[in-house]
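To whoever picks this up:

The nightly regression suite flagged Hemin receptor as changed. Nothing in the input moved, so I suspect the structure step. Input below, exactly as stored in the fixture:
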Amino acid sequence: MIKNSLAILTLAASFSLLSAQDISTIRNTSDIYSNNSNSGTAKFQGMAGSMGALGGDISTIDTNPAGIGVFISSGINGTLSINNSENTTNFNGQSTKYKINNTDLGQTGGVGTIRFEGDSPWKFVNVAVNYTVESVEDYTESGGNTNIRFAIPSATTTLDFNGHAYNRYGNISKSSFAVGANYNNNLYFGAALHFKSADIEQYDTAAFTDTFVNKTEIFNKQYTPFSEQSNGFAASLGVIGKVNDQIRLGASVESPTFWQINRVYTEYSNPDDGTFTEDRRLSSPLKATVSAAFVASKDFSLNVDYTLGLTKPKYKVYGIAETELNNYFDNNYSNLNEVKVGAEYRIMGFRLRGGYGYSSSPFDSQNIAAYQNDGSVSNRSFDNFIVGKKTTLAGGIGYDFGSIYLDAAYQNIKSTYNSPFLQGDNNVNSNYFSDNFVLPTSNYAVSEVKNNRNNVSITLGYKF
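Regenerated output under the current build:
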């Protein structure tokens, strides 16, 4: 049973914001547990993941499993993923940059085809297994502002704000199993099962200078640091149909991912500091994708995908904590809207690819009481709150040697969001704590974070 005090929320009439829950939990719910994977083959990446009505690549298992039915030969492949992520955090006129580099075997998979001979309208039944993994490591550091100052009468001192950091480590992986079928070379059907896992560590820390002794104190947000080991399950169905030789249409639906989350967290002054455990259950949004493709010839194809989130994240209710958490998402979560466009041009064995993607922010604009640079507090409105909209530009090349093929791709993903921190609530014991002080603030500081990701992927495959 989840500890009720862990996530008690205050939905203020004008703000509808979390008072007790760490903001990083809200961000992780959207960014990790409800987000689409960025991993895939280099062909998939080079077309910005837009292949829902084309199929023929194992990574379509993630968007439309009917794409597995398009295969006419068996094969295996593996993808090396080289990722660079840079956060530029702007606060109080200061800019802080931090880079993270990761290299993984981001994707491995294989497809087996079964051909039907004779006059049967069923031409192929194919089976596929695919595994992806990606790092979710992230770090943002906001500079200090001595105008944000707190008096501590009991200690006859003041605390001057000296900086804040959100720090996350971990990985998320997915194992998918799919069956696809080809009916009369005009209709393609597919179904897939997806088994997901996440392993993360999350920190939320602030630094303040004790002006009486001129010493910096490090504060931890209540219930942090925490670690989570989670497992999830989802299923998807899809279809692709040829309107004629040039036009193809596709549609798919993916169930919510049903997550079982096991958390270990730190609690302060209850009555003594200690480490506790809890279990949570979360259902991510139900998603639907519609696709259209234009295949001018065997040398050129263009695909458009549109994905819509049909529901919102929802925690299983054990008590008031989960009820209030669900109320927050009901009031502030905006359903996913994602558009992707991809194209491929072939010149004999060469392949040239390009793509573009856009996904909206999953949160509505919000009004909060936030600090100004001069230390005063005012009600302010923020777009792209906690998680921002994303734009993707992609390109790729490849060469088909016959039974062996080699592909490479590059993606640039940009996102800007407003990151709130510092707020706590004495009524529900959700403040920041150091060894000597409890931070007495009910207001937010907000920094602007610009994230720039550069992903390079290289796929080697063998067809047989």
